[in-house]
Structures are given as structure tokens and as C-alpha cells.
Write a structure and sequence with these properties.
This protein is of the alpha+beta class and about 375 residues long. Helix content is about 30%, strand content about 25%. It has a single domain, classed as PPM-type phosphatase domain (Phosphatase 2c, domain 1, 4-Layer Sandwich). The chain contains ten helices and 13 strands.
Length: about 375
Amino acid sequence: MNYATHYDVGDRKRDDGINEDSVAVSVFEQGHREGFLGYERDSASADDGDDGDEGDESGDATDRTATGDGAGNRSAAVVTLADGAGGHDAGDAASYIATTAVCERLAGTAVSAARSDPAGFGVAVEDSLPPTPRAGDIESAVAEAIVAAHREVLEYAAESGQQAHATVVAGVVVGGRLHYGWVGDSRAYLVNAARDEILPLTTDHAVVQRLREADQIDDVEALVHPRSNEITRAVGGSGREDPETATVDVETATVPLYREDVVLVTSDGLVDAQTEAAKLYEWYVEAGRDDEMAAVIRDRAVTDEEIRDAVLSARSLDAAAEGLVDLANERGGKDNLSTVLLRDGTLPATPDDPPPRAAGAEPALEDRETVLGESG
């Protein structure tokens, strides 16, 4: 499994601002029997004259294929990103506490889920191991970890007398699936090279998202809306809640992963980079929301399509992570920006007709929980 991270304070805050984002990644790698199968470039990329040294360090985002079926090695990972809410006293502390607390709690979940399935190594120890957890079990563990982080941030806020809020995205990658949860407007995406697509995995807990869902603004307005900095859900708070019992509503989901997928987790500084957003919004409304002005906004804002292209065109995950930060800063660098990119080249190839995986899609058939229906 390959991953890369990159984080930046943002051009507008470079002189006197602080970075309130935080990331944490924990990777579990296991090899047995056959040894590490590794990766190799396919025949098309092997002739491009690039020796690929840098790609060997970070994992190539687009052109690596597994040399086998992955039976000799496997990976599990925990990925966490938090964005401290700007304008509050201790957003940086909130994001630090959130990422470390979530990662600490979920690392054991990831390892336990991986070791509960020894069949791939041909080791007959199933009877002495706990059963393989269901998707719903791991989603619940993600939600519980975020709630635990929420309580830790509240405890810090109460002890310090400061307000401390942060958004959180957290995921467990194990067994060819991503089990994830989120609070706030930091985002997770899947970028798939085989299908040349980007799929949003999260929907923002934010005012602009509510306005879009209510059809009060269109997709172009959402790119530059003046209220883009207002979230409707976060971990932490003022410390007035009881840290022992406080909770937060965590949205969760599970999606299958394939060899050509890159998991991208990012703070909102990537898509909310435009420093002239308020002016562009005003021009768009005054122009009657016409196509010409819409094109201007799409050209100046950072769109999902540009994010996809930046990831797929990068020679490595490191280059993709750095390129996304550069893209946001070129468009204004309005806010702090953090990215985490992860890819597992030992997974099966993307099928011709993969299940729907974007936010709001029905879960894959194998991930649906059995429920008791009404008798009729």
C-alpha cells in the first residue's frame, strides 16, 4: 500500500497565519509464505524512458499493476484528517487532538480486521481468531472513534477555557474496502484511472450544501458562495457540554476499492481556494447566471474535474499531493490545505461495471446488513 501527504498554510496566511489542519496515517503491512509480490510498471509505461525512482518511493498514481494476486502480502491502514475551525481560539489544538485520538483508536481495529482473515496466506488458524468484522461493525468503530475524539476536544476546551472545533474525515482501509466516516466539510474522494473518474464519497455538513440540496443555489454558485466557510457540524465546541456524555452525529459508509483507485482525503482549502469568491458570486448573480460567467467561475475555482486530472496526470502519489496544494495556491490559497492520497496496487482490477460508490449510492450487495422486515 502506498500513501502520500502534503500540507500547507495557504498563500494568503503564509506571513501571519497558522496551519490548523492535521493529518494522521497508520499503515499495517504483512507478508507471509511467498514474500512481497511488489509492483511493476506495465509495458506501456516501461518504455517511457522514466526510471521511476521517485515513483518507487511513493507509489505511482496511475500506471502501476500488481505482479500477482496479492496472496503474499496485504495491507491495512487508518487515515484521518481534521481541519480546525478558523476564527475560534484553538482550532489547531482541536485538529491535533482529533487526528491523533481517532488514529490511536482505529489502528487496532484495522489490524484486528486484517489478521482475522488468514486464508490468503494458507494458514489454518481461523478457530483461534475473532470472526471477520462486518462492514457495519467497522463503520461503527469509525463513528465511535470520532465521538471519542469529540469528547477529548470538549475536555480540552473546558480545561483551557477556549473554543475548539474541527472537521474530521476518518477511514479504515482493509480487505479491499474503505470504511469511513466524517463530520463537517473536509472531504473524501475516489479517483479511478481505469474509468477516468472522480467520485465524491462525502457530502459537506455545511450551509452551502444545505442550500444546494434545497435548490436555492446551483452548482456554480456553490463554488464561490459567500457562506462557504460555514459548517453545520463539527467535533468539539465551547466546553460547556459534558465531555463524558457528549456526542456528535457521524455519517458513515463503506465502498469497495480496486487497483486503479486513489483514495483522496482533503480539507476544504482545496476546493475553497478562490480569494475573489464573493466578487465572482456577485458577478454571476448579476449576469443572470449565464453560461459565459459560469465558465469564468469554473476556470478560476478548483473543480472536481481538475482534482481528478491533477491526480491522474501525476507521476506519483507524492507528486499528486504536492500538485493539489500548488493548484489551490495558484487559485488564491485562501485557507490551510491538507491532502492524503492512498492506493493499494495489490487489489483486483476495476470491473467493467463496478457498483455505485459515490456519496448517497446504495451500498454494495455484500455490504448490506441483514435486517428484520415486517411480516405480511
